[in-house]
Amino acid sequence: MRKFIVLGIIGLLALSGTIVHAQEKLDFKVSGFMFAQSFLQKNVPNAYDMPPWSPISAWLPPIYGPSPLLSPDTGDGRALNKTRSWFGSRAILNLDMSMGKELSGRVALEIDSAEWGERGEGRNNAGRWNADQAAVEVKSFYIDVGLPYFGIPVPITARVGVQPHAIRPTMTGGADGAGITGGIRIDPVTIQLLWRKPLEKLDFSADDMDVYGLHAFGKFGGTTIGGYGLYWDMKTYPLPPNVSSPSAHSGKMWWLGLYTDGRFGPLDVNFDVVSDLGKIKAKLDPTHQDVKYFGWASRLKIDYPWEKFNFGAVGMYASGSDQRKTDGGAAAGTGGLPGNTTPFGTPTRRVSGYMAQPASEQFPWGDTLMISGQPVVGGFTGYHVLNYAGLNRGSIGGTWIAKLYGSYKVAPWYKVTLAGIYLGDTTKHGNTMGSARTAAGLPRDDKTIGWELDFIHEFNIYKNLKYDVGFSYLFAGKALDYFDARVSPGRNISGKDPWMLASRLTYSF
Question: What is the CA radius of gyration of the chain?
Fold first, then answer.
């Protein structure tokens, strides 16, 4: 019912007030980018791993579980301690059609080749030999309209259609999806109201999924200050593979956050703090205890630019779960649900690890090349979670980092950056990325994921052509050890230190 109220309000605004029917000339613009990237690495998961390796997309909150580098069988198809290499590509094409300042629309298309020479069909397989793949994806398509004032002397806008769902996505996660975003500008503050539709199951039944949000921000001097609230009303959870799939769970979740971006004296400062809270309920079995969620994350980044140099520091903390209260969630769709059992034999009842929004991607900032692939090749490799069904720990849940870095602009066309990062584990009575066990068969609790060194080169070859090269080496800590159950009675494995050499050639237009 609420979605019809929202649509009705927008329709009323569009039909009310003074409407000018003059036909504007169509202005058509094309923008986007293309890139080709390369990878050479050891013991770093690949987001597009195919069997017999386990895909990262199967890792669910709050604990990773088995290593994606270990084959589920005992054959030679295991990536542990092997040097791996591949190429990949992506293209984004934005088609913008405007009829003056008050009316415009965008259609965005995406083409991917996960690994050149892949043998799959369709999406993510544009690099298949002989090409000719049906690999063009619709990323988004929406209408932007400036609404008549309707007696309100401030600008009012609406965006309707499939669009980015992204408020501070480096903290909360984000996705493209259908919905409506309304905006009101009361200088210097902008207020946005949004509604999204992740799932319409049976349109005659209350079994769908809706997202409601409020985002307010303003620029005061040289500083932007903002806050937001996102509410997920999930009468079906998690997202099913198809409309007819039965659902045994429902949930209600909130994300509440504050942020500031600005300059304070000689320093550039970025600060975020956000909390997720809510619960997942069992719809079909009342004997299963509700699982409560409450996690939080915060990040502070400070830059000090000086002539051709830039010096900076980052501190980030994201809460982890207690495995005495939360199941490992290693199998697809089973993490943090009522009725699940923890490694200690107790019912899952609380998830205190920070969670990104359901069915979303979170690739944060470029704080660590090893974890998220940023800033060189973000999203295609690294120890992050891609989960398109339910809640997920993203790139940061259950971890904390302390980072120092410096960059030098050697020439107008070349910049070099060196970074040192400590990565810690915030999961209790278990580990976030590793799955090592004690002699008693219980999860082992370690504190250090490792010490990471990043060495990044940025080359601006032409105005619209950029080439980035990054090398990352992780001196692995005990929290990255894995348990190998293939050999009875099982054993912990400490793989060789992960490292990665990656590059990306990007043409922007």
Answer: 24
